[in-house]
Design a protein that fits this description.
The protein is α/β, with parallel strands linked by helices. It is about 35% helix and about 20% strand.
Length: about 160
């Protein structure tokens, strides 16, 4: 039985998903089960599955990242749940850090960097997002919440919520 389930919701962004999975491979994944939960992407994941054969791929037909995350939780029995979005890059010590801090709180959020791949000129919204989006430190320390792009919790807490 895995001690940690790493759940990755995905929809139709194979390039970034593969970047996320390749970065995840730089971590110590012993005792981890990795689940990619696809939201019915029109772009098939067959090649991605063959590149990452030790990861599980499941499909959730209900649209939305929340439904995909919930499906991932149902697919595993691991007591520790780590969530990362498919368009995020985990650090090479992300899992080790998660193991170290998992028992410190019921919910633990972490930094999420934004892919700044939009070539200029940017719209006002794109420029704003590049500077201000996903300020998880502000979210967590000041506003008291975390997004799910980088989140750790226990199964019992998840089920209670």
């Amino acid at each position: 039985m895995p001690e940690i389930a790493i759940i990755i919701p995905h929809y139709n962004d194979v390039v970034r998903l593969e970047r996320c999975l390749a970065a995840l491979m730089e971590n110590d994944l012993s005792g981890c089960e990795i689940l990619v939960v696809d939201n019915g992407s029109p772009q098939p994941l067959t090649q991605t599955q063959s590149r990452f054969p030790s990861f599980r791929f499941v499909v959730e037909t209900e649209k939305g990242a929340a439904a995909a995350r919930n499906r991932g939780v149902r697919e595993t029995t691991a007591p520790c749940l780590m969530f990362i979005d498919a368009d995020c890059l985990p650090a090479s010590d992300w899992v080790a850090t998660g193991r170290r801090v998992a028992d410190n709180a019921d919910l633990i959020g972490g930094r999420v960097g934004v892919f700044d791949e939009t070539p200029p000129p940017r719209s006002g919204a794109e420029a704003f997002e590049t500077v201000f989006a996903f300020d998880f430190r502000q979210y967590i320390e000041v506003q008291g919440f975390s997004g799910t792009g980088n989140l750790i919790t226990r199964r019992d807490v998840f089920e209670d919520v």
